[in-house]
Amino acid sequence: MVTQAPERPVAAAAPPPPRRRRGLPALWPYLLVIPTVAGTAYLLFYPLIRSVIISFQHFRTGELIRGGAAFVGLENYHEALGSAEFWAVVRRTLAWTGINVVLIMVISTLIALMVARLGKRLRLAVLLGLVLTWATPVLAATTIFQWLFQSKLGVVNWLLTSVGLTRFDGYTWFADGTATFAIMVLLVVWQSVPFAALTLYAGLTTIPQELFEAARIDGATAWQVFRDVTFPMLRPLFGLITSLEIIWVFKCFAQIWAISQGGPDGATTTLPVYAYQVAQSLHKYDLGSAISTLTVLILLVVLVPHLRRMYKHEGADR
Amino acid sequence: MIKRLPITLAALSVLVVSVFPVYWMVVTAFKPTRDIQADTPQFLPLHPTLEHFQTAVNAEGFVLFWRNSLLVSLGAVLLSLVVALLAAFAVARMRWRGRKAFILMVFIAQMAPWEALLIPMFIIARDTGMLDKLSMLTLIYFMSTLPFTIVTLRGFLAAIPEELEEAAQMDGAGRAAAFRKVVLPLLAPGLMSTSLFGFITAWNEFAFANALIIKNQDDRTLPVWLSSFSNVFGTDWGATMAAATLFMLPVLLIFLILQRRVTSGIIAGAVKG
Predict the structure, then answer these.
(1) How far apart are the first and last CA of chain B?
(2) Is A6 within the bounds of a domain?
(3) Do the domain assignments include residue A3?
(4) B143 touching A, CB under 8 A?
(5) A37 domain residue, yes or no
(6) d(Cα B258, Cα B193) in Å, to the nearest integer?
(7) A70 has which bridge partners?
(8) Which residues have a Cβ under 8 Å from the Cβ of A100 and sit 6 or more positions away?
(9) Residue A221: inside a domain, yes or no?
(10) Do B210 and A11 touch (CB under 8 A)?
(11) Closest by alpha carbon to B212, among B148, B135, B272?
């Protein structure tokens, strides 16, 4: 949800070869999973369903207090899909996701390849640096970035001014839409690169060295080695990390809300932020829910291949 | 040497970019206000002081919010550990109809779009009188760490040979006793690292804490409090950075404890791909 570390799916270990146990009551496994099923039903599926139901109702402040919301069919979806603002937010969300994920993947790949070539001491230092970044809580990071980019005392403005870019003397980053968007991208990339880079580096170390040597003996350039050896070997890993990053960047909320609440002038309003704004600031819980549902649907398009791969993996073990 | 220069420079710049923000937070927290406001930034804390930490700790509610964050995170982790252990055992050690469907459910839950649940959670909490309650946050954090905990514990369980349990059972121990005496001690490191990860997730969570604790400001958690630092500290950046440092401290300690495990976990995950 927030820290990226805990939510990374750990590789599903193979279940043991199932075997029949003597005298095992058939009811036990079901009793053991009841709490999980109950929790998931009430705290996950019920709110999800409730959200979908509300998106088909007229649900504003009055209904929140008194209850008795009436069904209005697709009205909320019509309102959402018919507004130019919604489509602007969709375009911004796609741009936001695209820019971030491309930057994250390119930078992490370069870092992973670089780390593999470093000497022992420097490699350890870089890896520890990445872990430190990874460990930084989102809200600590948002606070730090606001301090780095502070207009008068911020170290970034000082740096830019002292290399001759005097227009940044006292520049207020968070008053400008594009500048705020850029800082958000910087923040999310900074926070996301460690996981991707560390995972890719770990993947790199599993490729047999002989493959690289053979390619080099054949006179392959560095780019050819990457294209014909490294990338094909790590293709599943690249696929997995890319889809995970797409999901995390797409639904990123805390960073944006804590720094700009979607502003200035909506320049950093992505779909999750927009849905929340519509619901909590305008008290249009119905329209907010419709936007949430649409957000999930768009995300699902990305999610399905990933889910299928993980499930297939699971099936192969049996 | 000359040939190594570009890559060394690249490595050093990666190091600087990843470490500097956190370094700057800590250094700012230790610098006297006069140095923070100097025209030329001072990159070393030449006159270290603890005054900002005093300001942060003495700030209205800081201790209370620390306690809230701790209670919510610990509660969520303990709950999730117990529930996940049961489920992981059923999945890793037993064969039953519906097992695959259950695993699929856990995977779906793991990728649930939590941010999309802000609105219905708010409404459900309001309807059931759970708004402004730390117990509601505890339940939500429990649920958001549960799938991850199940998947990880199941992995750890699967790595423990079943023969060990069977041997204990042969020796006359019951299934539960065999589990408690043989499996649980072997599982302890797994339980430890999993729960610490869960703790970090709960400790850092912002969106739900921000959406569900509205009227009763005493029930806020640290991240939400920190997000409103300009209301608390104004332009006192020293105190703000001291507060951020104190917020990050437990997470950093956990990462240090887990360092070895984090790295090997990454490698295990990568191999499996």
Answers:
(1) 36
(2) no
(3) no
(4) yes
(5) no
(6) 7
(7) A58
(8) A185, A188, A189, A192, A245, A249
(9) yes
(10) no
(11) B135
The DSSP string of A67-126 is --PEE-TTHHHHHHHH-HHHHHHHHHHHHHHHHHHHHHHHHHHHHHHHHHHS-HHHHHHH
B154 inside 8 A of chain A by CB: yes
Interchain contact, B162 vs A315, CB within 8 Å = no
Does A232 sit behind a cis peptide bond, omega within 30 degrees of 0 on the bond before it? Answer: no
pLDDT in tens, A156-184: 999 999 998 888 888 899 999 999 999 99
Q: What residues in B contact A310, CB-CB < 8 Å?
A: 107
Residues of A in contact with B28 (CB under 8 A): 147
Domains located in chain B, CATH noted: 64-236 (1.10.3720.10)
Q: How far apart are CA A70 and CA A57, in angstroms?
A: 5
Q: Which residues of chain A make contact with B207, given a CB cutoff of 8 A?
A: 1-2, 253-254, 257
Q: What is the per-residue pLDDT across B93-128, written as a single tens digit (0 to 9) for each?
A: 888 999 999 999 999 898 787 888 999 999 999 999
Nearest to A96 by CA among A183, A11, A16, A23: A183
Chain segment A110-131, per-residue pLDDT in tens: 999 999 989 888 998 999 899 8
Q: What is the mean pLDDT of chain B?
A: 87
Residue B30 contacts A, CB cutoff 8 Å: no
Total number of domains constituting chain A:
1
Q: Residue B269's pLDDT is what?
A: 45
> Does A315 score more than 60 pLDDT?
no
What token pair was written down for B213?
A: 């604790």
Which pTM was predicted? 0.85
Residue B241 CB contacts under 8 Å (≥ 6 apart), including other chains: A143, A144, A147, B25, B26, B28, B29, B52
**Scanning every residue of chain B, which has its alpha carbon at the shortest distance from the alpha carbon of A8?**
B148
C-alpha to C-alpha distance for A189 and A129, rounded to whole angstroms: 15
| CB contact residues (below 8 A), chain B span 176-215, against chain A | 197-198, 200-201, 203-208, 210-211
The C-alpha atoms of residue A220 and residue A205 are separated, in whole angstroms, by: 20
CATH number at residue A265: 1.10.3720.10
Measured distance CA(A50)–CA(A37) in Å, rounded? 18
Residue contacts between A and B (CB atoms, under 8 Å): 336
Structural domain that includes position A193: 78-316
DSSP β-ladder status, A70-71 and A57-58: antiparallel
